[in-house]
């Protein structure tokens, strides 16, 4: 706090032309304090998101690194559900990392999918064959400068290319139910490998259905020939089991590209027509 004093100087006044001079009484010295400046206080960090809230996000908003949408009632139409709010470990080796540092983004990319599996229930196979995914958000740079250090994990369902499917009710244990696996299951708009093929949620219009996954060897990408050959027998068997006539049936196989492998899809997918 700073205080400034101001001294008022007085002048000695001469009276007439007399040879005697009587000094006028000096004006009293006064001091005037400048207004006290209020101490500067940093704005408090913005409130962290709340677990269990729902949001009506577009696809573009869902894949953005930060979220600006407000909550909506979970009973209203919504496309995302916040299922975990955590804390980012921003101090590494005594150094404060920026909120958009690669290390923190990798941390979010690992934590949210793991927690999504706990939320959805079902087996690993059933989760792989669903269109439910996790997305995550961190504070903006401005929010982090004010002390925000939260991580928000949301669950969304991909309806099709750059489109989200409205969520129907709570997602806790949804893949433990037949209705949940049917609504959020992975289906296709055409035979895999053809020009009209796109992955869509089974709740939307479709003509093919994903039946099972085919595990591939751990490690580096095995190459297209190995990945393709791995699906021949299991997909034939899956297509036959799903057909009305075991002697007259179709099946399809979708194996991962090197890019998909690097992104975490280390398995192939068997398909069959879904009348």
From TrEMBL:
Domain annotation Septum formation-related: ranges: 52-267
Keyword Nucleotidyltransferase: no
Superkingdom in the source lineage: Bacteria
Signal peptide from the UniProt entry: 1-23
Signal among keywords: yes
Biased composition range(s): Low complexity: 29-41
One Pfam family this sequence matches: Septum_form
Record region (Disordered): 19-54
Transmembrane segments: none
Alphabetized UniProt keyword annotations: Signal
Protein name as annotated: Septum formation family protein
């Amino acid at each position: 706090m700073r205080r400034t004093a101001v001294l008022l100087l007085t002048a000695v006044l001469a009276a007439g032309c007399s040879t005697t001079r009587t000094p006028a009484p000096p004006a009293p010295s006064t001091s005037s304090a400048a207004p006290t400046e209020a101490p500067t206080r940093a704005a408090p960090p913005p409130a962290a998101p709340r677990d269990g809230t729902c949001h009506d996000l577009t696809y573009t908003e869902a894949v953005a690194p930060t979220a600006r949408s407000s909550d909506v009632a979970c009973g209203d139409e919504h496309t995302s559900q916040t299922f975990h709010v955590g804390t980012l470990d921003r101090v590494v080796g005594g150094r404060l990392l920026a909120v958009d540092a690669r290390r923190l983004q990798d941390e979010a990319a690992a934590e949210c999918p793991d927690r999504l599996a706990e939320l959805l229930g079902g087996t690993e196979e059933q989760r792989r064959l669903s269109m439910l995914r996790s997305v995550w958000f961190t504070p903006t740079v401005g929010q982090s400068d004010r002390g925000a250090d939260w991580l928000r994990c949301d669950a969304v369902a991909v309806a099709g290319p750059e489109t989200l499917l409205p969520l129907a009710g709570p997602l806790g244990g949804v893949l433990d139910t037949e209705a949940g696996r049917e609504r959020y299951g992975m289906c296709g708009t055409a035979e895999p490998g053809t020009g009209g093929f796109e992955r869509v949620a089974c709740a939307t219009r479709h003509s093919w259905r994903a039946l099972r996954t085919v595990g591939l060897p751990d490690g580096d990408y095995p190459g297209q020939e190995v990945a393709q050959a791995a699906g021949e027998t299991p997909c034939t068997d899956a297509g036959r089991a799903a057909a009305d006539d075991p002697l007259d049936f179709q099946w399809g196989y979708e194996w991962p590209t090197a890019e998909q492998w690097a992104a975490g899809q280390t398995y192939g997918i068997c398909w069959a027509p879904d009348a």
